[in-house]
């Protein structure tokens, strides 16, 4: 079962209908936005996880590792989100599409 369908099996028809009302460009933008949001969440998590690590290596506590570590955690977060992450982006994407479809149906 796909991440989008997981937990929403009773409303898959509503989501399928909503997708028909939203342009492919808007769908792509919503997908990117949802992945970016999950990446920010994951980056915050990864930053907290690595903030107290001391010692040698990429997560060590030397003068140069601070900025490098933030770039590394950002890339980890983006990679995780793009690969499916925690599943947040699927739910966010679904919510964005449903909202856009509702707005397009109301003439707004």
Strand content: under 5%
The end-to-end span amounts to 34 Å
Find the structural class using helix and strand composition: mainly alpha
**What is the typical, i.e. mean, pLDDT?**
82
- How many helices in DSSP terms? 4
Which blocks of ≥5 consecutive residues have pLDDT under 50?
1-5
The quaternary organization reads as: single chain
**How many β-strand stretches?**
0
Largest sheet descriptor: none
Radius of gyration: 18 Å
Tally of structural domains = 1
Q: Would you list the SSEs in sequence order as H and E? A: HHHH
**Portion of residues in helices?**
55-70%
- Which geometry do the CA atoms define? elongated
Summarize the topology.
Elements (H helix, E strand, L loop, with lengths): L11 H10 L2 H27 L14 H18 L5 H18 L3
Helix pairs in contact: 1-4, 2-3, 2-4
Describe the structure.
This protein has 108 residues and is mostly helical. It is built from four helices and no strands. Mean pLDDT is 82; it is low at 1-5. It has helices at residues 12-21, 24-50, 65-82, 88-105. It has one domain (9-105).
């Amino acid at each position: 079962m796909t991440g989008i369908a997981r937990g929403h099996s009773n409303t898959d028809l509503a989501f399928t209908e909503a997708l028909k009302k939203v342009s492919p460009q808007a769908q792509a933008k919503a997908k990117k936005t949802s992945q970016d949001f999950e990446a920010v969440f994951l980056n915050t998590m990864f930053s907290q996880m690595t903030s107290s690590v001391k010692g040698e290596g990429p997560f060590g506590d030397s003068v140069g590792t601070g900025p490098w570590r933030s770039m590394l955690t950002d890339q980890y977060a983006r990679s995780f989100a793009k690969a499916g992450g925690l599943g947040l982006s699927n739910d966010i994407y679904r919510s964005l599409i449903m909202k856009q479809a509702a707005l397009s149906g109301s003439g707004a």
